[in-house]
Design goal:
Layout: H1 3-19, H2 26-37, H3 46-49, H4 51-61, H5 63-72, H6 77-106, H7 112-131, H8 146-156, H9 166-176, H10 181-206, H11 213-244, H12 247-267
GO molecular function: undecaprenyl-diphosphatase activity
Keywords: Antibiotic resistance, Cell membrane, Cell shape, Cell wall biogenesis/degradation, Hydrolase, Membrane, Peptidoglycan synthesis, Transmembrane, Transmembrane helix
Main location: membrane
């Protein structure tokens, strides 16, 4: 295991954890950073597999709430509705992601120019939604109806285009459909759990013959870095978006996309 690979895995893991749950596209950041660092992984698995570290960060922060929901499932209709909403929201990505997996990984993940353009376009979408005078109807994430969750799930499928942002797509969809900013971000957290675990399992299965022991060690480094940095973000994000909205993330997306485009044009 080369020292450069270890440092790259650490840097990319930190980037993953810091960007996974904010609407800037962690996949775009990891792929672009990996491109310029010269970091390669079999089948582009690294960017997907280290996301499990970010998922464990959510589980650790929300462990008490999730345990209460799990224990109350037999007696609470509200808990069953909430779990059902998360699973229904996950369904579109499960179906479309499985069908389009190879195209996403071999074509879209290998197109840095597309990623930069989508980052910039997504930034303008976030600016538009942040300034749009919306009237929220849903304020409690545990009370989202199944129909709302399903529609948000279809928005999440847009994130299969690298640069879109899974959290960004779900948040924008939720806001347009009547959720407030805080609950939109929180539902994105919960929807991430089955979505990213499913992506992790599918990617691991598809690339099981291409991974080696050294790949596992590199992935473990990125995984731990993503876990630690994601805990920091999850604890702070909800209060931040309640106060500041999503405009800061929009400007960040536009800046990163523009810098990436310039760098690609200058150095390839």
């Amino acid at each position: 295991m080369e020292d450069q690979s270890i440092v790259s895995a650490l840097v990319l893991g930190l980037i993953e954890g810091l960007t996974e749950f904010i609407p800037v596209s962690s996949t775009a950041h990891v792929l672009l950073a990996g491109h310029f660092l010269g970091f390669k992984s079999p089948g582009n698995t690294f960017a997907v597999l280290i996301q499990l570290g970010a998922i464990l960060a959510i589980l650790s922060v929300y462990f008490t709430k999730l345990l209460q929901i799990a224990l109350s499932l037999p007696t609470s209709a509200a808990s069953r509705r909430f779990v059902g909403a998360v699973l229904v929201g996950f369904l579109p990505a499960a179906v479309i992601g499985a069908l389009a997996h190879d195209f996403i990984k071999t074509v879209l993940f290998e197109t840095p120019m597309l990623i930069c353009i989508v980052l910039i376009l997504g930034g303008f979408v976030l600016l538009w939604i942040d300034r749009k005078p919306l009237t929220p109807r849903y304020h409690d994430v545990t009370e989202y109806p199944l129909s709302l969750a399903l529609k948000i799930g279809f928005f999440q499928c847009l994130a299969m285009i690298p640069g879109t942002s899974r959290s960004g797509a779900t948040i924008v969809g939720a806001l347009l459909l009547g959720a407030d900013k805080r609950s939109a971000a929180e539902f994105s957290f919960f929807l991430a759990m089955p979505t990213m675990v499913g992506a992790f399992a599918l990617d691991l299965y598809k690339n099981r013959d291409a991974l080696s022991f050294n790949d596992g060690a590199i992935i473990a480094i990125g995984f731990i870095a993503a876990f630690i940095s994601a805990i920091f973000v999850v604890r702070l994000l909800l209060d931040f978006v309640s106060r500041r909205g999503y405009a800061p993330f929009a400007y960040w997306r536009i800046a990163v996309g523009a810098i990436g485009l310039v760098a690609l044009l200058l150095v390839g």
